[in-house]
Design brief:
α1 (12-23) crosses α5 (87-120) and α3 (43-49) packs across α4 (54-66). The chain is mainly α. Helices cover 65% and strands 8% of the residues.
C-alpha cells in the first residue's frame, strides 16, 4: 500500500512540516522548479536537465512524493512520470500566513514599546 499523502487527512502542521523538510534541500527545490517549468517528467528526463545522476534524482523524487509535493503517473512504455502537486504547498503557505498573523500583534506591540522608550530618552 502506498504511503498516505500528508494532505490527505493530516493536520496542516504535519503537512507543512513535511513540505518544509522536503524543501530544505536545494536539489529538491531544483527538481520541483524543473517539473513546474517542463511539466511531467521521468527521473531520466530530470537527470538530463539537472547536474545530478538519475539515481540521485530518483531518491529526491521519493522524498518529494512522500511529502505529497510530487505525484507519479504511468507514462509511455511503462516509464513513470512525476508531476508537481500544489495542494501541500498551499497548506504550508496557509500555515505560514497563520504564524505571521500570530506574530504581527506582538511584534507591533514591541515596536510601539521601543518607539516610546526611544522618544523618552533625551
Amino acid at each position: 500500500m502506498p504511503p498516505e499523502r500528508p494532505d490527505a487527512g493530516a493536520s496542516a502542521e504535519s503537512t507543512a512540516e513535511a513540505v518544509f523538510a522536503a524543501l530544505a534541500d536545494p536539489t529538491r527545490r531544483a527538481i520541483l522548479a524543473d517539473l513546474a517549468t517542463h511539466g511531467p517528467s521521468t527521473a531520466t528526463d530530470l537527470a538530463g536537465r539537472l547536474p545530478i545522476s538519475r539515481q540521485a534524482v530518483a531518491k529526491h523524487l521519493d522524498r518529494l512524493t512522500e511529502a505529497g509535493l510530487v505525484s507519479v503517473e504511468p507514462g509511455e512504455r511503462r516509464r513513470i512520470r512525476h508531476r508537481v502537486r500544489s495542494a501541500p504547498m498551499r497548506v504550508a503557505q496557509r500555515y505560514l500566513a497563520a504564524l505571521a498573523r500570530d506574530w504581527d500583534g506582538p511584534l507591533a506591540a514591541l515596536s510601539d514599546q521601543l518607539d516610546r522608550i526611544h522618544q523618552e530618552d533625551p
